[in-house]
Amino acid sequence: MAKITLLDGGMGQELLHRTGDTPTPLWATQVMVDHPGLVQEIHADYFAAGATIATTNTYALLRDRLVKAGIADQEGALRATALAEAKAARDAHGSGRIAGAIGPLGASYQPDIFPDHATGVAEYAPVVAALAPHVDLILFETVASVAHAKAALEAAQGCGKPVWLAVTVDDEDGSLLRSGEPVSEIAKLSGADALLANCSAPEAMAAAIDELLPSGLPVGAFANAFTQITKEFLTDSPTVDALHPRDDITPERYADFAMDWVNRGATIIGGCCETGPAHIAAVAERLRAAGHEIV
Fold first, then answer.
1. Cβ atoms of residues 151 and 142 within 8 Å
2. Four-point Cα dihedral 140, 182, 221, 89, nearest 10
3. Among 46, 217, 254, 265, which is least packed by CB within 10 angstroms?
4. Residues 6+ apart with CB under 8 A from 61
5. What is the pLDDT of residues 121-174, one digit of tens each?
6. CB-based contacts of 65: which residues, under 8 Å, 6+ apart?
7. Which of 73, 137, 151, 74 is nearest to 106 (CA)?
8. Which candidate, 220, 178, 214, 180, places its Cα nearest to that of 196?
9. How far is residue 246's CA from residue 16's CA, in Å, rounded to a whole number?
10. What is the value of pTM for the model shown?
């Protein structure tokens, strides 16, 4: 039986569900000001469900997004809050690791607006430097193109912490990135310590995993439970109210998908948008029942 790292589930959507707030491009960041302690509560619930990693609420804490919202001067304070809430939950739980999350520059799912390589590296490098001393690993999420991946990996080079790269893939063909490029190109890159697929349909993850495994690195997946990403969503500064949750991705069904990923060779499993503590608990239960060790 395998040793499986169990990531947490979605943060942003869980925050929306618990607050009832109207989403904005920086809703998950603003919630740390409007509802202090709620991020820590969600981290705690994921640990209680069986997760062994807390992913910091820093996905959108990027200068380009903060400048657009007029709050660039709050970057350091917001990052410190996100880190503190993850650490407090981990310390209260008594074990676990913290992953410093870094999302896409520009917007999610839109590789066409990702900046040129030099700009991407320059934008990412200070974010990595700010997170690395306070986390156990760096997690680049929702990487939608090979260019995005290369900029992220170069920016993290020499940061002193493991670097995990998670790509978002076509919902209908998981062997392709959202850019249309083959996922297999990601497996050829150097600089990552683990390769994952994230924020795509659960049905697409098996093909993505198959394409990442030849890298020889630990491979994993954490899917969302949205309906397919629509053209209407791919606009400037989209918000998640343009997406709709699937009512068929119950915790039990999500666990079915997760076990298939494990059977294919994935050793890092978790959830993304519209998955919550109940989904992680169901995965943990199935993993233990199958004799796997959650680490």
1. no
2. 10
3. 265
4. 29, 75, 78, 79, 82, 127
5. 999 999 999 999 999 999 999 999 999 999 999 999 999 999 999 999 999 999
6. 25, 26
7. 151
8. 220
9. 16
10. 0.94
